[in-house]
């Protein structure tokens, strides 16, 4: 299967070096090791043993800390973003 998707995430330096070492030991690329780990995790069931309701509940719980995090109390904020940024830059340059 052709690989067309790219995903990036941050790792601690320790975890990255340990994964890179493991990839070298196994004679595979870092990307191949990550794909192998991901496939193994999915084949072991991941959340397959959960009902659709339980999966939905987990997703909701994971999302709840972010609900309303972009609420600024100003319904016109998005439409005025360009103007507000320009005003802020003008004030900064004047200082």
Helix-strand blueprint:
Blueprint: H1 13-26, H2 30-43, H3 52-63, H4 81-94
Helix pairs in contact: 1-2
Describe this structure in words.
The protein has 95 residues and is mostly helical. It has a domain at 10-50. The chain contains 4 helices and no strands. Helix 1 packs across helix 2 (30-43). The model has no long low-confidence stretch (mean pLDDT 84).
What's this, in brief?
The chain has 95 residues and is mainly α. It has helices spanning 13-26, 30-43, 52-63, 81-94.
Features:
mainly alpha; single chain; 95 residues; 4 helices
Mean pLDDT across residues: 84
Elements, N to C (H/E): HHHH
Strand content of the residues, in percent? under 5%
The total count of strands amounts to 0
Give the structural class: mainly alpha
The N- and C-terminal alpha carbons lie at a distance of 57 Å
């Amino acid at each position: 299967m052709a690989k067309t998707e790219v995903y990036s995430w941050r790792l601690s330096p320790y975890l990255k070096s340990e994964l890179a070492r493991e990839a070298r030991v196994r004679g595979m690329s870092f990307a191949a090791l990550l794909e192998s780990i991901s496939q193994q995790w999915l084949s072991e069931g991941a959340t397959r043993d959960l009902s659709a309701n339980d999966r939905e509940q987990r997703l909701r719980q994971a999302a709840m800390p972010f609900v309303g995090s972009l609420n600024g109390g100003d319904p016109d904020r998005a439409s005025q973003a360009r103007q507000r940024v320009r005003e802020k830059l003008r004030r900064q340059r004047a200082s």
